[in-house]
Amino acid sequence: MAEKISLCMIVKNEGQDLRRCLNSVQNIVHEIIVVDTGSTDSTSDIARQYGAILHHFLWNDNFSDARNASLELAQGDWILFLDADEELSPDSREILIRLIENETIEGYFVKIMNHLGKEGWIETVPDLVFRLFRNKKEYRFRGAIHEQIADVILEKNSEARFQVAEDLMIIHHGYLDNVIKEKDKKHRNLSLIEKELELKPNNRLLQFHYGVELFRAERYTEAAAVLIQSATDIDPNTIYLPKLLRYIVIAQQSSGQLNEALNSAALGLRLFPDYADLYYYTGLILLDLKHYSQARNAFLQALSMPEQPPQYASFGGVRGFRAYYYLAQIAESFLDEEEALKYYLYSLRDNARFTHALERLVGILKPTKEPDYTKECLEKVCDFCTPEANRLMGDIYYQHGAYGLALYYFDQAEDESPVLPDIKLKKAICLIQELRFFEALRLLTDFTQESPNYPLATLNRLFCFWIQNNPQKVRTLWKELHALGLAQDTDNVISLFLAYDAKHAPSPQMVLGSEGIFLLLDIIQRLVALQEIERAMYFLHALQPKCLIKYNLKIAQIFVNYSEENRAIPFLQTVIENDPLAEAHFQLAEIHSHLGRFSEAEQHYKHALHLDPDTPRSYVRLINLYTAWRQSILKEALAKYPENDVFKKLAEEGASNHERTD
């Protein structure tokens, strides 16, 4: 006679997820037992629709009691237990039938794929969980939280054999950010585990789960201490030991205990030499310590590791796109853009949705200065065949201030799908930046007063008319915006448009908070992109200088991005006068070097090196500078003494060395 499976669940207010879970087991399990611990939504109705045996249980802060109530009702030969935010993978039916026909096995560890993150960017992390076992009266759950039954089965039946259920998979959605926030899982779990630990202070598994919950609550120092306590003198064959070691490493790293984290990772790799995650986190820690060569080796080691076993719960991408991403960052630290581009491309090929790599890649290509080259390069290696891909590309270019490129990709996305309001607004801004005012205004007037984007759309209409020198329209739109009751900072920034049209030179008296500054910087960036430098300077001169102290580096970068290096110099000098930063000296050196002012460039590279001696880029730039400087001096000498053998010989040696380097 065929073996039967009982699905056992405990639920509370799972109306949003329960249907997905029960759909995944239809025609696979023979009965569904749902223990409801106090739902006030549609959970019970949904359970009945699927023919579930529904039992109401008074919640007592004990997950095992609730689970055991479901087991008491189960009539099947096997128990499968799932949570409502889980589902069986689509191809589970035949696999389950095969598993329960094995008479020698008492229970199975099942691979679970945890989805975590948020909408738009979701990570997957595999793990092993004990979810399928024979239905016997002596097999009951134990533990108020992170309830266990595998240990109980072994206590009751020393001959019991467990196995990993190959190819069977549970998909878990409960670690998504919105789910955790909605259910307050972190607080609930910590509270329950703390109560349980008062009763069983030496229980290693409880300590492990407590350490994990402390880590999730961002209490990293406490988490590291608890996890180390859990790992002390532990049996090396403990199935969760690899995960425990990884959590120790990342808790120590997150709490700033970098050397301790390195030691823990090294210990873990002695026990599990093929554990890619430990190589990866070793690389991250070494990168934090600016030990670039060792970090590079660690990431390469992670990439070389074989497929990870489920009990390692290996984090997605540590053997691929994540490791490639940090290899690219190391290359960038040495200003090796060719190698950085290579690794960013490898990262994208491994995971086309890993937008961090795409953003960095775009930055290297300098889209505001070389838009055609940037577009050509990316279209050779990236496939922009969907509206989503085109919108993403448009967004990235928009963030970089490459408005013409952004517009091109927003247009591509619009050809294939309806335009979202946010994209419509960005597209209108790009049209203004391309001086296509009529088209921009047509889009901006589509936004009604009920739209959350209406104030921004109206502000951009004002900006559009202001660029076209239409003071009457500017005043009308200013009155409209003012009537909306905007924040004082926003109102102050908008009033500057009126003052400019009235030919009132502003006295540098305006004080803005961070919100107003961000709006102001966006306006300045757009004006510089339009080569409206006088207008951009007008806005900058309207503020008290002290307001800009934190933002001078950003302002300088805006001017550099649009090839206005000379305009950037005063802002970088102001940064250095107020707080000598290595970044300000480096950027100033870059400008002087680009303008052929080698002596000034040398001094600023040296200052940058002095302030940040562990960052290699200033060394690279000084070597390049001295090489260019030498060639410039030699060229000058040869022009003056064309027949001099010494200078000819030096020129020949330089050419020979250049060929060998190439």
TrEMBL record:
Residue stretches of each TPR repeat: 276-309, 582-615
**Alphabetized InterPro entries for the sequence:** Glyco_trans_2-like, Nucleotide-diphossugar_trans, TPR-like_helical_dom_sf, TPR_rpt
Can you say what this protein is called? Glycosyltransferase fused to TPR-repeat domain
Record-annotated Glycosyltransferase 2-like domain positions: 6-130
A GO molecular function term, named singly, is: transferase activity
Keyword Transferase included in the entry's annotation: yes
Q: From which domain of life does this come?
A: Bacteria
From which source organism is this entry? Answer: Desulfosporosinus metallidurans
The record's annotation in Pfam families points to: Glycos_transf_2, TPR_1, TPR_16
Q: Keywords for this entry? A: TPR repeat, Transferase
